[in-house]
Amino acid sequence: APPVLMVAGKWGWGLHHMLMNFGWKAVIAIFLNALIACLVFRKELFAMGKQHEDHEVPRVPLLVMLIHLVALVLVVLFSHHPAVFMGVFLLFLGFTEAYHRYQSPLMLREGLLVAFFLAGLVVLGGMQKWWLEPILSSMGSTLLFAGTALLTAITDNAALTYLGSLVEDLSDVSKYALVAGAVTGGGLTVIANAPNPVSFSLLKNTITTTLTRIQVDIAIWTLRYLCTLNYIRTLKHWLKGNLTKSQEWLNAQPLLRKG
Questions:
Q1: How many Å apart are CA 28 and CA 23, to the nearest integer?
Q2: Exposed, middle or buried, 253 (CB in 10 Å: 0-12/13-18/19+)?
Q3: Residue 72: CB atoms within 10 Å
Q4: Between the CA atoms of 197, 203, 207 and 211, what dihedral angle is there, to the nearest 10 degrees?
Q5: Who's near 167: CB < 8 A, 6+ residues apart?
Q6: Which of 11, 80, 144, 228 has its CB 3.0 to 4.6 Å from that of 177, i.e. a possible disulfide?
Q7: Residue 37 and residue 32: Cα distance in Å, rounded?
Q8: CA distances in angstroms from 169 to 63, 92, 107, 143, listed in the order given
Q9: Are 13 and 4 in contact (CB under 8 A)?
């Protein structure tokens, strides 16, 4: 995800770190999200089985699905090798153009808009360090978490984490609070995260009544509330453990204990 991608390299966050600190929480959030959505829209889901399509959708050949899967794996593996990445990407573009019967049109325009936004962020973001560093350094972890989660409602969460990564000597708990707030609030609005416009374009013609919109909002905010509580509990546990270790270290220092 872009919010994590912006800080992973600088902070040394690998796959194991993300799975242990964020991954299992994301799995719980996804499960709750799917469960709540199925419960809220259970009538609509049961009714879908009774509907008949006006046109028959062609069956996608297994070879086409395998080529998509292989291209996706290669793009991820060679994301840091531009020559190989561009070769695989161009081959995939040619394949989708040649066999467009079995595939949806590629959203190149939307992808390029996100790419230009992130590129501009990297180029121009470094100039914001002079005013960001004193502000973030003076904020506590809880305030940083809440502020980041709220700011995702009006700006992209990748921008928030990247700007936070510019601050030197940011504590581990502040790093966690920054990214946790960004990913927790990343789905509050359409603009907060790159995949949101895709989901919005798929659902905008099906959510027609005010009641349905209210049900969707209730489901989303319930999920966000649960995610926020989950991250805050982990943050408090981390702080408690580190404070205990600090107190034990101080007790072991005779000069400091006398002072």
A1: 9
A2: exposed
A3: 12
A4: -70
A5: 129, 132, 133, 136, 137
A6: 144
A7: 8
A8: 50, 42, 39, 18
A9: yes
Return the structure tokens found at 31. 């499960």
Burial 184-199 (b: 16+ CB within 10 A, else e): bbbbbeeebbbebeee
Two tokens, residue 3: 């919010």
For residue 237, with 0-12 CB atoms within 10 Å meaning exposed, 13-18 middle and 19 or more buried, which class applies? exposed
Assigned token pair, 137: 């350094």
C-beta of residue 146 within 8 angstroms of C-beta of residue 179:
no
Amino acid type, 245? K
Q: Identity (one letter) of the amino acid at 121? A: L
pLDDT tens digits, 46-67: 877 665 555 565 678 899 999 9
Q: Which residues contact 38 (CB under 8 A, 6 or more apart)?
A: 45
What confidence tens digit (pLDDT) does each residue in 113-162 have? Answer: 777 877 887 788 778 777 777 877 788 888 888 888 877 777 778 888 88
